[in-house]
Amino acid sequence: MDGHEDGCAGEGLLTRRLGILAAALALAIAGTAGAAHASDDGPEVGAGSCHLVKFCVSAGAGDETGGEGQADGSQSGSGSRDNHLKCAYIKIEPKPPAEHPAWKDQDPEKYDMYFMSCSDGGQNNPDGFIIVPEGQPPAPQVESQELAQRAIDSMTLLGPDIASPRAAGKYTVGVPMWMWVNQSATTYGPNTASATAGGVTVTATAKVSKIVWTMGDGTSVTCNGPGTPYTASEGVAPSPTCGHLYSTTSAGAGGGTFAVTATSTWTIDWQGGGAAGQLTEVRQSNVQAAVGEVQVVR
Questions:
Q1: CATH number, domain 147-292
Q2: pLDDT averaged over consecutive 10-residue blocks of the chain (298 residues)?
Q3: Against a cut of 0.70, is the pTM above it?
Q4: Domain-by-domain residue ranges, the chain?
Q5: Which of 98, 217, 252, 289 has its CA at 20 to 30 Å from residue 44's CA atom?
């Protein structure tokens, strides 16, 4: 809306939500407060005011450019990496009675009530009542997935902590190599963190779901766990969980070693703000592996 419309004939989604607002507020209020007149049929448009069923929302309430009835700075855009959640706030004046459930046991003498209407331009259209200290504008609403990403960013997720192959190790053609990683909260998980904004808290838990090893000889190995540490008692047996067998030496590779890359996929489950979901992050680590041949002396 352009901020110059008369009355409160809102457009599209906001208009429908005003109707929902009127019905919701009517449920728990016994008498009429602050309305010139009201009907049981829903909102009635008057010059300069919105007469809801039991009390009024000022004209311009749906004006996202800052019309009357919207707190200064109340419009905000915040969202995930792909979407932006835009919210408008309708201040409820006069305030509904203290017994109205939307107050959530807060004192109307100390708090203001707003109706929040948000959209990301798609299917994500949250709305509801917001209670804030009297005289303060509503805090910008943040999409739950954005809070999940903030929680993930605070975890400092790293690439695999490679235990084997070792940069100083010597490996042999035809002898199974065992690959494994050390496990910690930042290199393998689980790792849990939370982020809070606008009264919403989202908690995310991250754990590595797989590691893809690029061996430097043109092959790759996918391991769904951290791998099994090698012990001398295993002899030349292959790893039961994560291993590779080189068929050529690294003599012809750059620096005489194979460049091994371990790429971990972190799977992050999150929930909060009435939503839940799953995200992924990818991290890498590198190591050089020297592979030679056993020389037989006769």
A1: 2.60.40.10
A2: 35 51 46 36 34 31 31 30 63 88 88 82 73 79 82 96 94 96 98 88 96 97 97 94 96 92 97 88 96 70
A3: no
A4: 12-141, 147-292
A5: 98
